[in-house]
Amino acid sequence: MTWGDLFRDWHGQIDTLSNLFPHADPSALARFRGNRGLLAQYIADTHELTLEEGTEAVELRLLPSARSVAQQLVAAE
Length: 77
Hints:
single chain; mainly alpha; 0% strand; 77 residues
């Protein structure tokens, strides 16, 4: 899945987002409508993370390709 796929089916992904980020309010998630930066900030705020951690959480949990790149980077260390 790509970010474009998520954006096109944003409202269909709200349940998935709610499961991945349990402190997030589904109605708040719906308002972000695929805005990566706002979503990352909201996740950071609601899950006691830094903005960098929130961005990473969004990327790694929502986009499998980002997860595999991160795993490759860790394996290379």
